[in-house]
Amino acid sequence: MRPILLQGHERSLTQIKYNADGDLIFSCSKDHRINVWYSHNGERLGTYDGHNGTIWTVDVDSETKYLVSGAADNTLKLWDVRTGKCLHTWEFPTAVKRVAFSDDDNLIACITEQRMGYQGAVRVFRINRNGTEQSEEPLSIFHPIESKATVLTFGLTPDTIITGHESGKLTLYNTKNGEELATNKRAHREILLGGGQEAMSVTTTSLRQGKFETRFWHKIFEEEVGRVKGHFGPINTIAVHPAGTSYASGGEDGFIRVHHFDESYFKARPYGDLEPEDD
After folding, report:
1. Do residues 29 and 12 touch, judged by C-beta distance below 8 A?
2. If you placed Cys at 53, which of 72, 96, 247, 262 could pair as Cys (CB 3.0 to 4.6 Å)?
């Protein structure tokens, strides 16, 4: 599983995102830049310039037509993927920490940071798909309570939004009115984990001690099944190809590493034959 090394950012990565087809990777970082790459060979196609602060988050619609990004300059931007043109900018009191498209591509949601006396908020906007002017007013806005919301995604339908919180809980909301429909305070079962020590300590620690590696876990048996090393600093973001054939990791070192799984990975049966039995 020899990695492809993508070099195009000058500062640490914040998020990586595959498009629905899996042929493109979008990446953002603290260097105020969004890059787009071919996933099969790591060739860079272009950049999206326009933010004036750390870009925390990025998402792309199912048709790879529109891109949305959120940044520390307190803005949410909508982009034309093909031309790189910024189509619209929404401004908020605090930084945008996470963005997401709905599966039908008609809605985008974002989390704005709890800071400077402002509450953390989830805002939902309806997108005009013909590329003309967008509405400044959100379709809905609500404020998650208790633990700070840090990530979000739409549910199985655009009618619901799922938020992940600092405490580890997941909450399901009604998209239109922000009503809390369900919550689970012990919901997380990761398959791939990335991390390491605090970035400020990297220069005084060896690679072995820093634990800068991706770790694979079996989600049923909850056992570690493998590790992949390579980054020279903490891993900040991981994304898996929609078909499960590869994954990409982005680190504090500013590099993206794309790993395409070998055929032996799919043939391995460490727990024996676990295929479901016919009724």
Report:
1. yes
2. 72
